[in-house]
Amino acid sequence: MKQSLDRLISALVELPGIGRKTAQRIALHLLCAGEEKSETLARALTEARERLHPCPTCYSLTEDELCDVCADAKRDHSLICVVEETGDVLTLEAAARYRGVYHVLDGVLSPMDNMGPDDLRIAELVERVNNNSIREVIIATNPTTEGEATAVYLARCLSTNGILVTRIARGLPVGSDLELADGETISRAFEGRREL
Q1: What domains are defined for the chain?
Q2: Alpha-carbon torsion, ordered 88, 89, 91, 96, to 10 deg
Q3: What is the tens place of the pLDDT at every residue in 121-180?
Q4: Do 167 and 193 touch, CB atoms closer than 8 A?
């Protein structure tokens, strides 16, 4: 049992924000909750892995050909909000304050993690901006060192296109993630965005 439990805990520790003690609590809960609960979780994870794929326009996850945002004709498709990951899209959509579309980078520039421009969906963003009638790109990377470096790099990449490139305001605390922000903070960050 010890090896199996250790392997399960080690697998859970790999999840973002999960430390060893939390992983141990989750593992023991799943094991003690009964076979049905753990099988339900395993089926849900397998189904999500099989059915979800990146939207070919914005790279957020979807089950359909296009994600709900890209498929919505009522959204302002001339306004693109650039985020680090799909979780940021979910957070911004929950705030229900933004009516444009998104572009998911799948990370940030991070030399320490060997993440350079070619590892992100930057080329796809530049191509999207060049091939569509885009009036503004809002950069909403997290206010971390890597997020700021990515924002500056994106601004330089897009500056030759003649479109407005803005950065969400500092309503978000430095060092925090979008997913931790409440709707009002997100709203103020969008309202106070500035040109880069």
Answers
A1: 2-51 (1.10.8.420), 55-195 (3.40.1360.10)
A2: 150
A3: 999 999 999 999 999 999 999 988 899 999 999 999 998 778 899 998 766 666 677 777
A4: yes
